[in-house]
Amino acid sequence: MHPIVLRNCVILTLVMLSLAACGGGGAKTNVNATSTTMGQELMDLNASYEQGLISAREYQRAKKDILRKYDN
Asked: Would the pTM of this model clear 0.70, i.e. be above it?
C-alpha cells in the first residue's frame, strides 16, 4: 500500500474512533436510586414533625410526595 494512502487510512481511522468515543452527543440520563423504603421515609418524616423541625403543612405536603413517589 502506498505510504500516503496508508497515512490517510490511519488518520481517518483515528478521526472515526475519536468521534465514536463522544458518547452520543450529550444525552442526559437521570437515575433515581433510593435505599430507603416508603415506611422508613414516613417514619423519618414523622420524627421530624414531632421534633418540631417542620410545620404541619410541610409534613402533609412531604407525606403526599412520599406516597405519590411509591404509588406505582
From this structure: no
Could you tell me which residues come within 8 angstroms of residue 3 by beta carbon, excluding any fewer than 6 positions away?
A: none
pLDDT digits (tens, 9 = 90+) for 6-30: 676 667 676 666 666 556 556 777 7
End-to-end CA distance of the chain: 62
Residue 62: is its pLDDT beyond 70? yes
Helical spans, DSSP H, in 1-72: 3-20, 38-50, 56-70
Evaluate whether 63 touches 38 at the Cβ level (below 8 Å).
no
b/e per residue, 22-50, with b = 16+ CB within 10 A?
A: eeeeeeeeeeeeeeeeeeebbeebeeebe
